[in-house]
Amino acid sequence: MPQPETRPGDSDFEEDPRYRTAKRELFIALAYWVAFTAAVTATAWLLGGGKAADEISFVLGFPAWFFWSVPVTCLLFSGVAFILVHRFFTDIPLSAGGDAGEPDER
């Protein structure tokens, strides 16, 4: 198997350990966004999709499909975001001289 071509300066490259942390947090945030979008869309569609106007029920003055898909789902997912940030996200310094990879004390 041929060796990959090396270029001048390649041996000087050292990956910043903050990159791995940022990449992991990116995937967590993307998964959260996909789950949130799917939950809001599915709730709205299941409760209100294809119904005639006289079949729609109301909760606190809102159509039921809107009430359950927007304010309630947003409140639930705000709690999920709080848990994700406090459990899986790491405070890392943005300066080059900081201790990368070690969380700041709270």
UniProtKB/TrEMBL annotation:
Residue ranges annotated as transmembrane are 26-45, 65-85
Q: Which keywords annotate this record?
A: Membrane, Transmembrane, Transmembrane helix
InterPro entries cross-referenced by the UniProt entry? DUF997 (IPR010398)
Write the protein's name: Solute:sodium symporter small subunit
